Amino acid sequence: MILAIATATAPSLITAQDDSAKPQPVPAIQSFDISAIDTSVDPCTDFYQYACGNWLKSNPIPSDQVRWVRSFSLLRERNRYLLWQELDAAAKAPKSPLQKQFGDFYASCMDTATVDKKGFSPIKPAWDKIEGLKDTSQLPSLLSWLENNGISDGFFEFGVAQDDKDSSKQIAEIFQGGISLPDRDYYIVDSARFKTIRGQYLEHMKKMFVLAGDTPEQAEKEAAAVLKIETAMAQASLSRTDLRNPEKRYHIYTVADFDKLAPSFKWETYFKETGIGQFDTLNVGTPDFFKALSGLITSEPLDSWKSYLRWHSMHGQARLLSKPFFDETFDFFSRTLSGQQEPEARWKQCSSMTDRALGEAVGQDWVKQNFPPAAKDSMDKLVAALEKSLGDDIKTLPWMTEDTKKAAAEKLAAIRNKIGYPEKWRDYSSVKVDRSDLIGNNQHAAVFERDFNFNKLGKPVDEKEWDMTPPTVNAYYNPSFNDINFPAGILQPPFFDFKIDPAVNFGGIGVVIGHEMTHGFDDQGSQYDGQGNLREWQKPEDRKAFQERTECVANEYSGFESAPAMGDTPAQHLNGHLTLGENTADNGGLRIAYMALLDTLAAQGKTIGEKIDGYTEAQRYFLGFAQVWCQNTKDAAARQAALVDPHSPGKWRVNGSVQNFDEFGKAFNCTQGKPMYPVNSCRVW
Ligand SMILES: [Zn+2]
To answer: What 3-state class would DSSP assign to 14?
Structure first.
């Protein structure tokens, strides 16, 4: 589990239809955009609208996107273009074995003629194997066979992770899974909107089964069987909000006891045949789910399980199949569910796919081109400045006892920083890549990834490992490592720009760094100690005061609307508890980056009141921060995000954070009592 600053972009769906969109260079993104500001809005009433208003008007969402963010989306497009240049060159004339490997991978994705010619045939071996299922007692062997061949089967998530209570150990863990829609609510909430979506999902499954060669009658029966099983799985699943609570995800079982909990599935057979290796105990993240799954295996007929597996093996790879399959999949999962009008151009799809599959191979050349060594030194200094200000903040917290302040300072001192890219690159030489086998390449990459994970069982932890690839525009905190990670992809303008005044830089990358550090102390991260172990280090009275403060933030954000009422569909509010960790990190990040800016200006003999372009340094800091989050979003995507995304939408990341920080009201000379400068506000850190 890692905590990222922004939502990862969902794997895009490829289409064979459109090669017309040729790659275009994307210039560097402007760090501070005075023309984005809408001066007709009162910044004390709606700061987001003030900082972003003109940008929002003149930047509609491109037809191949569901969300368009001034910083993240533009920089992602730029980084991907730079990556494409490298992939395209490697595909045409590779200069090393590594370039040959990722060049061929990229080329196999661009070769739509071969993909189309193969049609549904790449899925046939899996379907034949599923057809041979004689009895549900053979499910463990069948599932391990599918996974050993890189084919999705639904059911559940199984792998190796650090033990929450002893971060030096790597243990097996198993979690709920098995559904295809974005969240369990889509199956179980009784509303007009979700009923409509469930009907559309059934229609989509029917069409896919017919495309694969089933009769319409057969397809109808199969779709109904899949929906019934997935609905039962959804009902037995923990909510995303509950899953954020580490104690609710931690249940150590012996393999023998796990067998007793869910006896209809021979776990020992499954574990053995996946090749993970020997273990006696594992973390069963969601026991109720496995109890229910066991009952379901007994109660549902064999044919229903065949339909379920046929569905998952096809759906999981639909984006790698010929045009009719991915067009139909795009139509439901992207157009209907999130409002995307058309797929991204093929070169974009293939660049992202290669980055996902062989990220640390393509990243090596990418950082040479795009991440100068001087950038790392500058980041080291910035991180040190932020560490100091979080330390100062802890010392002056009004609600924390001295003993707990000491413990917090120890945890802060133990945070490790990873900047840019891994010290040691992963070796992909065992991944077989064939220029004319897109689906095979993806299956080999999936098996490589799984085996890399399985191989950690019982071994020492590798603290140098990364969870994001170098060109990624994102950052994360990992509570088990107690480390903060900033890929080279985000260390670019508009986040990180040394051609601009420090205020804008601290509002950009400074707040990102502060956000990640604060994750170590949010409602989730604070349950882990400096060594990454789930262990209480706050005194009971401090934990109580902490919870009162986080509840204030949760209630506040639950009042924010992420999509307005439309016709019969009611307004969608944020889930204050799902987004609590991210909101706490945003609030803390904004405060400590501001303190670090004050220190930096003071060291240069400057003040926060000096003006550039008519704005004081304090004002430029808040504007720089807000302009990271200017974004237009499709209504369907906003509603989906409110259920599944632990991050608040840009408007509330900005307005929620500034209204909880008095220095904002002072910087813009607001009268106290205005929305952005309330008399009472929430504060954790
Ligand atoms: Zn975050």
So the answer is: coil
